[in-house]
Amino acid sequence: xxxxxxxxxxxxxxxxxxxxxxxxxxxxxxxxxxxxxxxxxxxxxxxxxxxxxxxxxxxxxxxxxxxxxxxxxxxxxxxxxxxxxxxxxxxxxxxxxxxxxxxxxxxxxxxxxxxxxxxxxxxxxxxxxxxxxxxxxxxxxxxxxxxxxxxxxxxxxxxxxxxxxxxxxxxxxxxxxxxxxxxxxxxxxxxxxxxxxxxxxxxxxxxxxxxxxxxxxxxxxxxxxxxxx
Length: 229
Prior knowledge:
Blueprint: E1 2-6, H1 11-22, E2 26-31, H2 34-48, E3 55-59, H3 60-64, E4 69-72, H4 79-86, E5 95-98, E6 103-104, E7 107-111, H5 119-127, E8 132-136, H6 142-146, E9 156-160, H7 163-166, H8 183-191, E10 202-206, H9 218-224
Parallel strand pairs: 1-2, 1-4, 2-3, 4-5, 5-8, 9-10
Antiparallel strand pairs: 6-7, 8-9
Helix pairs in contact: 4-5
């Protein structure tokens, strides 16, 4: 499976790309600057001890083309601009996982929250309700992600509107081009191979009443409570 990492040259993007590759998939590291993406693509595999052929580099726009899963790992201040730049190159069969947290890139002690209430909500509003958007990994450190031999040391929160899709046993929309595909199948391996298949350290939120149109349901209330971004 081919996974794009938009804005993937930062620490969090590098960590997500590492977990994608560790799961046996191809991580396409995206950037506005192709040179930066290529540098990370060359240096990340030996740094994390994974095969180089599981990594690729591209501009953000080219990275999302033909990707089955798109991770958004841009800083909070560049979130809207990044989505606007790739929007017309996305399709509604792709799973879009928003990883952007409300952290000020210039001062990590400060928070920056969008008008939509969360960056996942902003992505859903900007792309439209026909696109499959969820939020995940916002509470997971880049250090843990980069150490792909380390099991997750925290819950991995997945937030989105389609509970049937989010549930690890009730997936209905195609993610792996497979009717059994679902968000948990993507997020759990990317967050680390779980020791116990029945207890995958995944916290699922969403469903009826949690739509991005009003974002007053459980998925975005969790966001406002700062439990996850």
